[in-house]
Amino acid sequence: NNFFKINFQQNNAYFSSSPKQSSWLQRFLSKFESDSTAIYYISGIAIIMLGLSFAFIPFFRILCETTSFNGVAQIARNLNKIATMEKVDDCLIRVQFNADVPSSMQWKFKPLQDEIYVSPGETALAFFTAYNPTNKPIVGISTYNLSPFQAAYYFNKIQCFCFDEQILNPGEEVDLPVFFYIDPDFVNDPLLEDVTNLLLSYTFFESGANLKLPSPFDPDNRPLNKSLQKFEEKEKKTGSLLESVNAIA
User: Fold this and answer.
1) Within this chain, do residues 98 and 196 fall inside the same structural domain, yes or no?
2) Residue 141: what pLDDT?
3) Do 34 and 123 belong to one domain?
4) Residue 59 placed within a domain
5) Biggest CA-to-CA distance, the chain
6) Average pLDDT, stretch 3-27?
7) How far is residue 187's CA from residue 173's CA, in Å, rounded to a whole number?
8) Tally of domains in the chain
9) Is 57 a member of any domain?
């Protein structure tokens, strides 16, 4: 019995202290630890990316509204200036309105007026209307742009519906206001000396987990360019029609 006991202890000591066995065990534990660390890192990155995806829209909104980036008009925060600013009577600006939706958005969206005339230093109110013709609720979110983009610094929105989610139930229609003014300093900017026409364009997207707003760095993704082209073509056709009528007369 003592012989078997001694022999078992020796063999057990051999397996415990064998360099080959110890090396294999260390490799296994090291690999397990590295794999676990990798899983933790990947999980952490996934959580961070998910959080950034939700934070992108408000961050983009703050960036654009603070800097007038990409032709995005500013939010009016100086209420004292609004109360004391003086209207520039000898300057009249035509503001045209455009509404777009991508093919994936099932809403009907349009401005209630084609254009209004406003002087710098004067407040103005415009409306857009959105309608959900489907049999299911749809949540939408909008972006906006102003052309020419140099004028965005002077175009201030007191109230609007941009970057806020709007839910429309089946068959529901809603009017969406835009309350704005053009800063009186508009007339002192030499780059805008010949500018008398502005185009305010809104685009509604269906909100959801897979929502990807168009990149502001890609000109092809700016619906405003297409909208401006559409207005220019419309005015050319109108001008040609008037010329034809005058020629006949």
Assistant:
1) yes
2) 93
3) no
4) no
5) 130
6) 51
7) 38
8) 2
9) no
Is residue 138 assigned to a domain? yes
Residue 158, domain member (yes or no): yes
- Between CA 25 and CA 18 the distance in angstroms is 11
Of 27 and 102, the structure prediction assigns the larger pLDDT to 102
For residue 11, pLDDT over 60 is answered with no
Shared domain check, 144 and 32: no
Residue 121, SS3 per DSSP: coil
- Cα–Cα separations (whole angstroms), residue 169 to 118, 161, 166, 202: 35, 17, 10, 21
Q: By residue range, what is the domain housing residue 15?
A: 2-48
Q: Are 221 and 215 in contact (CB under 8 A)?
A: yes
Lowest-pLDDT choice from 72-81, 89-98, 120-129: 72-81
Q: Which residue has the tokens 């899983």?
A: 39
Looking at residue 69, its pLDDT comes to: 43
Give buried/exposed letters for 106-125 (b at 16+ CB in 10 A, else e).
ebebbbeeebeebbbbbebe
Residue 79 sits in a domain whose CATH number is 2.60.370.10
Residue 143, pLDDT > 60, answer yes
What is the reported pTM? Answer: 0.57
Give first-to-last CA distance, the chain, whole Å.
Answer: 130
Residues 23 and 94 in one domain: no
